[in-house]
Please model this.
Amino acid sequence: MSSSGRVVVIGGGLAGITAALDCADAGAQVELVEVRRRLGGAAYSFEREGLQLDNGQHVFLRACVAYRGLLDRFASGDRVSIQPRLEIPVLRPGCRRAVLRRSALPAPLHLAGALAGYPHLSLRQRLSAARTALALMRLDLDDGSLDEITLGEWLARHGQGPAAVGALWDLIALPALNLPAAEASLALGAFVFDNGLLKGADAADIGFHCATLAATIGEPAARALDDAGVQVRLGWRAERLHRTATGLEVQGAEEGLSAEAAILAVPHSRAAALLEPLIGTAAQRFQRLGSSPIINLHVVYDRPVCEESFAAGVGTPVQYLFDRTAAAGAPRGCQYLAVSLSGAEREMGMSVDALRERYLPALEQLLPRAREATVEFFMATREHAATFRAAPGVAALRPGPETAVPGLVLGGTWTDTGWPATLEGAVMSGHTAAAAALRALGGESRGSQLASRAASAAAGRTAGGSA
Model:
């Protein structure tokens, strides 16, 4: 059943792309506008000194069924890979390489062996961590009080001291929430550990983008949108939203676009500015979501210095490092490592020289061969507002897709998807936004189908399903 009508999607990130494809599939006339001259939103690539670099290292999990479904739509399956089983190499200065690897046992026993042999915790700490993981699984994720305290506070109440949090819990919490456990909402932290790690044996197997983000997301998205009949306008800035007698108008610098429904899939600070003339002070609460930064360091050595394709760091400022030599097209014989720093508020205020002085010696401590190597290239990419701030109280600030304005719908990782700001959350929000927009057009059947699809994806995700 088709849903006739016109939809304007504002924002060309994953949420906007997903919403546009869903609405076009349902028969709507769809126009997508994006202020940048590329698609992909916060996941993009750029060229620097002959290297093809990604702005950040956007990994995903086997449990991310919505995002993986979008990759299938893009025919990007050969540009990503998923671990057969979760395996995280852990590097610590002066210590042998450790590995957190799941077994073939059912959850939660699949992690028992990894924890039992983890050398960066004492035997007592490992037993305590196992008891804490079981307690985490027993939390009711629908309990609103979980959003009133930090994950760190809860862990401390269960005997997890700073050493255990740094060596174990923050290996997952920091990159997933873009905040350390000490600052992150228990509600979101419990969701990440429960749905992504503890309930399904294969849920946390890590997925990597083998090619650049442009080749995996941006360029295939443009082709998919064109094939679906979506008109895409790049370099087009939405300046104002107006209600009209027949729906909505999106006003740009030189022209306006009219539609029966509009999907606003832009960052929350930008959405608040566009919404305030329509919904007044209610839009201001979106600003209170705040932001948390991410920095990526890009280091090219004149020789191979690291045997791992990726690794986590403990007892070092290096959080995660990734070998991106092949994807970037690094010169023969060189190795390009990307260092991802989440929750990087301190580093955001540091100059490139200061970052170099801090992180190159730290890499040498982890990678002995780097001590004899020459650094051919070093730069930093900064995402000042990479994600909303996943702190206590955030749940009350995240809106659903519908607004008080008929036909005006919200999408993006900052909306209430249940997930923190992730690739999966972005795609889920796009599906939900499209369903709401189609209902506004009168396409109840198709809107309900899309809502059911999103719910099914969530159910499969919660069960740790591997679609």
Notes: The chain has three domains: 6-42+213-289+392-462, 45-63+207-211+291-387, 98-203. The first helix runs from residue 14 to 25. The radius of gyration is 22 Å.
